[in-house]
Amino acid sequence: MEDERVQAIASLSKALDTIPSEFIRSEHERPGTTTFHGPAPEIPVVDLADPDRDRVVQAVVKAGQEWGIFQLVNHGIPAEVIKEVQRVGREFFELPQEEKEAYAMKPESETLEGYGSKLQKDLEGKKAWVDFFFHNIWPQSRVNPSIWPKNPPSYRKANEDYTKCLLRVVDEVLASLSLGLGLEEQVLKEALGGEDLELLLKINYYPPCPRPDLALGVVAHTDMSAITMLVPNEVPGLQVFKDGHWSDAKYVPNAIVVHIGDQIEIVSNGKYKSVLHRTTVNKEKVRMSWPVFCSPPEEMVVGPLPQLVSNESTAKYKTKKYKDYRYCKINKLPQ
Ligand SMILES: O=C(O)CCC(=O)C(=O)O
Ligand SMILES: [Fe+2]
């Protein structure tokens, strides 16, 4: 198991200045040849402290329709709170390998939580240049800090503080998206489970890669969540597919990157679009990111909101339990 971790493979690869063939993407996926280098339009920035609420809603709506992704600034989460979550996460990944393996995800376990790497190859028969750690952070009833990293000791407090701050921002984003559909501000959140909306933290650890032109971190996908709230470290790597090509996302320091996920696309009956994205890796530096996937509880039935469906605007998506959607997505079955 241990020598399968990308972090361990990366140390070997560094010495050899090459990467194992199972990480070499096929021609049509290689970032070296598929990244657009012309003038890329910049990912929209939304200022959450703008006193003009309508303007905030309009900015969120436009970004949600045209991009499926935006960066929130002046979101009110203190920079130190974010830095602390990043510090403890990084320190965990810097622990000796044996210590991390104590948290390894158990294949037979019901939940997705723990430390891991994608052990199977993907549809293309390739592997992703990334290790990760998943754990629930909300609601309280689904949080089990005994499976969170115990080292560094401040891990738990840092994550609890961040969660508290993030919940408020999630509510604000969902409220704006709801108003943008012509609905009252609480309607969208209610349709996604209300207070039972689930927040799952993932820490992505992308080790340095001698051939960043040939490998990918996370391969092209849309998130199956409702929305994803992400903070990266200072190393670039996120790419979005827009206007027919892959462009680097320029990150605004201290912003929160909001991805529209599949569930928001579905409830909005396609008004908002989930964003197709992927990540590249860096030759010298470790890239890390902390996405928080905000999703309906698994038994929640999710479909286009009845208020948005009419004879003129018929339902574009099936209505089904979130767990059934997730099953199809994970197993690459038609929805
Ligand atoms: O690392 C990133 O910026 C994005 C990661 C991502 O898309 C994911 O884990 O779903
Ligand atoms: Fe993603």
TrEMBL record:
Report the GO molecular function annotations: dioxygenase activity; L-ascorbic acid binding; metal ion binding
The record's annotation in InterPro entries points to:
DIOX_N, IPNS-like_FE2OG_OXY, IPNS-like_sf, Iron_ascorbate_oxido_reductase, Oxoglu/Fe-dep_dioxygenase_dom
Q: What is this organism's lineage?
A: Eukaryota, Viridiplantae, Streptophyta, Embryophyta, Tracheophyta
Give the similarity note: Belongs to the iron/ascorbate-dependent oxidoreductase family.
Q: Which domain of life is it from?
A: Eukaryota
What this protein is called in its record is: Flavonol synthase 1
- Names of the cofactor(s): L-ascorbate
Q: Name one GO biological process term.
A: pigment biosynthetic process
Specify the signal sequence span.
Answer: none
Q: Which Pfam families match?
A: 2OG-FeII_Oxy, DIOX_N
Q: Where is the Fe2OG dioxygenase domain?
A: 196-296
| Keyword Iron-sulfur included in the entry's annotation | no
Q: Does the keyword Secreted apply?
A: no
List keywords of the entry alphabetically: Dioxygenase, Flavonoid biosynthesis, Iron, Metal-binding, Oxidoreductase, Vitamin C
